[in-house]
Design a protein that fits this description.
This protein is an alpha+beta fold. It contains 20 helices and 28 strands. The chain folds into four domains: 133 residues, Sandwich (Immunoglobulin-like), CATH 2.60.40; 314 residues, Glycosidases (TIM Barrel); 53 residues, Oligo-1,6-glucosidase, domain 2, CATH 3.90.400; 103 residues, Immunoglobulin-like, CATH 2.60.40.1180. Helix 15 packs parallel to helix 18. The structure holds 1-deoxynojirimycin.
Length: 728
């Protein structure tokens, strides 16, 4: 079937057909424009007969198209399936026409409870038809669908946040005490890393019971109180979902070891080579261990992509998939608003069990411990892993529909340098929706490079790489760090640059992910072999003594720094011992100090989160203006509202840099002014850009090292808009 874009024939008045008739068998037979034209119509809807016609998503099951003229754009949607196909479908129309992000329902064949739909997520039932009037994302803001797009997702390791019972471990009640703070910085979505019962060999990513709370964090009652508190503040809570593996202490694994017929196939087993004397193949996992461990109880090897105490679940077993859905349902029933799915790259392995080839890097690194020494052709990013993500997405869609819940978020974690593989988790097309947020780790990779000379250019390369590759139907996301990568502040060429990075995180288009404590510029705390007893992240030991200090992720997981008064920064009481030592910087870098100071990282962060709610930042356009070794600048705009963000990345001692933005923006007039909206904390109050509201001329904008600035352009709107548009 081919439908080319053409002017919709006025006389056909497809939309004049009473919508009930779209529900009829006639509509189910519609597969072409000609068929539409023959449908009955009603003159009262003549307004829809104007304008152009363009097909949207057309499949055997769905017929959808746009009608538009200069003022308005409509999306007409007809689900042609019959009652025998009761499956709910969701389609993604985002990015198909203009910058529209949502649609107001102006007519529908069925009773709609919602007034508007987000275009990333158009739900459809068999036989349903409706007309949406499209509008920009920021218009008629519908929190129930969009909350995750505008939000900052705040990652919290509960153990490291706030201890309420003086055992040195943060807990759920402690987190409840800190909700005021989290809300005060404008964060609306909290993501908790695993809080389930666990032997805690991998910070809870080794789960021994998926449907309970580890006693060190509290009880299920505590959890329910937390959910209620979060929701009463109009905030959301998402949990880590770890589908790839369990702890070896999980009852399923214990039963599998005993050859219990109900559980024999819950994990992945192999006899091994050479009568069991050799491992099945050469697979090496990301935690520095071979992926196979011999279990004498079964006289077989079990697979583990991560630690040997984290056996991989057999995700080709339907019973296991059912168990996982039961787990998702359990937490959804308690009110959680979505999940962050762990390690989705690693879900499925090729069942031919072929060896993996060495990579180009193998000559420089030890292939017995380093994951990058192999091309993971057999054990990562298998097509079935993408399919599982889509399956869970669909499960959440059905759950939210059946239970009248707001949109349920699905975030996925897939570390990969190959950007296409990361993008695939979004779902390859508009009908097969996958992850909502396939986490963008590019900034964290680039911070690892540590090449100060090339810093600015490398940053530009990574930002552009993401922007160029993100599918049009996907919503972007930005992330500066996580529990797996060192603290962003410690990895920047200069700690002062953190403010500029807040601007990148919060003012570029997309969801922002923030790791707890980064809002106060917390730094890494080094762990050394002089005190091996301090190290909790035992994975580091797999790489040998030489690498422990570099590899331990404890550095970035230290307790949150609240105050300078009490010995442990207010994380726990003076008489307790924190489970992980605090970073030395806590007396200067803590929430209390930064609240008191007139200017601080925290205050700037809060200000930028507020700014991010403005329409140019949510749903507006974005364009790079300048990227050199020293400066990165971009604009965000919507209609006449234009913001310029400039970040000077040179380290101290470098000459100040003066730039002519009038020229760069190709502005026709000689004078162009900008008003200071936000500035990095290191800009002196006495500088011409030192106060919010100051007006400066943009033909000579001077920034010192590590200074960053947000300006609102004051211009003849028309002229500047033309410059931007012409350049598109
Ligand atoms: C990814 C998590 O982010 C990491 O911390 C953990 O060690 C592995 N998955 C294994 O669960």
């Amino acid at each position: 079937m081919s439908l080319s874009s053409s002017v919709f024939p006025r006389e056909s008045f497809f939309l004049l057909a009473p919508l009930e008739s779209l529900h009829s068998d006639d509509v189910k037979r519609v597969i072409s424009l000609d068929d539409l034209i023959k449908l009955p119509h009603d003159d009262s809807l003549a307004q829809f007969s104007i304008g152009e016609y363009k097909p949207a998503i057309v499949t055997n099951d769905l017929f959808s198209f746009f009608r538009f003229n200069e003022q308005k754009t409509y999306l007409i949607f007809i689900d042609k399936r019959s009652e025998s196909d009761a499956d709910l479908r969701r389609y993604n129309f985002f990015g198909l026409v203009g910058t529209f992000g949502k649609g107001k329902i102006v007519a529908s064949s069925s009773k709609q409870t919602k007034k508007s739909l987000n275009l990333t997520n158009v739900l459809s039932n068999h036989g349903q038809a409706f007309v949406l009037e499209l509008c920009e994302l920021y218009e008629d803001y519908d929190e129930s669908q969009d909350w995750w797009m505008r939000d900052v997702i705040y990652e919290v390791i509960t153990a490291s946040y706030q201890d309420s019972n003086n055992d040195g471990f943060g807990d759920i009640q402690g987190l409840r005490q800190r909700l005021d703070y989290i809300q005060s910085i404008g964060i609306k979505t909290i993501w908790l890393t695993p809080i389930y019962p666990s032997p805690w060999k991998d910070y809870g990513y080794d789960i021994s019971n998926f449907c309970d709370i580890d006693p060190r964090f509290g009880t299920l009652d505590d959890f329910c109180q937390l959910v209620a508190d979060v929701h009463s503040r109009n905030m959301r809570l998402i949990l880590d979902f770890v589908p790839n593996h369990t702890s070896n202490e999980h009852t399923w694994f214990q039963a599998a070891l005993r050859n219990d017929p109900n559980y024999v196939d819950y994990y992945v087993w192999h006899e091994g080579k050479n009568n069991g004397k050799d491992l099945p193949n050469n697979w090496l996992g990301p935690s520095g261990q071979r992926m196979w461990t011999y279990a004498p109880e079964r006289k077989m090897y079990y697979l583990h992509q991560f630690l040997d105490c984290q056996p991989d679940l057999n995700l080709r077993n339907d019973k296991v998939l059912e168990e996982l859905k039961r787990i998702l349902r359990f937490w959804l029933d308690l009110g959680v608003d979505g999940f962050r799915a762990d390690a989705v790259r690693h879900l499925i392995e090729n069942d031919d069990f072929r060896d993996e080839p060495l990579s180009k890097k193998a000559k420089d690194i030890d292939p017995n411990i380093f994951y990058d020494a192999y091309e993971h052709t057999e054990t990562a990013d298998q097509p079935e892993s993408y399919a599982l993500v889509r399956q869970w997405r669909r499960f959440l869609d059905n759950y939210s529909y059946d239970n009248c819940r707001d949109y349920l978020l699905f975030v996925t974690e897939a570390y990969h340098q190959d950007i296409q593989k990361v993008m695939n988790y979004y779902g390859a097309n508009r009908e097969e929706r996958g992850s909502d947020v396939s986490i963008n780790f590019l900034i964290t990779y680039y911070l690892d490079k540590n090449d100060n000379e090339q810093h600015g250019l490398e940053l530009d390369k990574q930002l552009t790489k993401w922007q160029k590759n993100v599918p049009r139907h996907a919503w972007s996301n930005w992330c500066l760090g996580s529990h797996d990568s060192g603290r962003v502040t410690s990895r920047l060429p200069s700690t002062e640059l953190i403010d500029g990075f807040y601007m990148l995180l919060l003012l570029q288009s997309g969801t922002a992910l923030l790791y707890y404590g980064d809002e106060i510029a917390m730094c890494n705390r080094p762990f050394t072999l002089e005190h091996p007893e301090e190290i909790v992240d035992i994975t580091a030991f797999n790489y040998g003594e030489k690498y422990v200090e570099e590899r331990t992720r404890d550095c970035q997981r230290t307790p949150m720094q609240w105050t300078s008064h009490s010995p442990y920064a207010g994380f726990t009481s003076a008489t307790a011992k924190p489970y992980l030592p605090l970073a030395d910087t806590w007396p200067e870098l803590n929430v209390e100090q930064q609240e008191k100071a007139e200017r601080s990282h925290l205050k700037l962060f809060r200000q930028l989160v507020k700014l991010r709610q403005q329409s140019p930042f949510y749903g507006g356009h974005q364009k790079k203006v300048l990227a050199t070794k020293e400066l990165y600048a971009f604009i965000r705009w919507l209609h006449s509202d234009i913001y310029l963000i400039v970040i000077n990345q040179t380290t101290s001692g470098h000459e100040p840099i003066t730039t002519d933005f009038v020229k760069l923006l190709k502005y026709q007039n000689k004078q162009l002014f900008g008003e200071v909206v936000a500035k990095s904390t290191n800009i002196s109050d006495t500088s011409p850009i030192g106060k919010e509201g100051n007006r400066i001329e943009l033909n000579q904008l001077t920034l010192q090292s590590n200074e960053s600035l947000v300006l609102r352009l004051l211009s003849s709107v028309l002229e500047i808009s033309l410059c931007i548009d012409n350049d598109e």
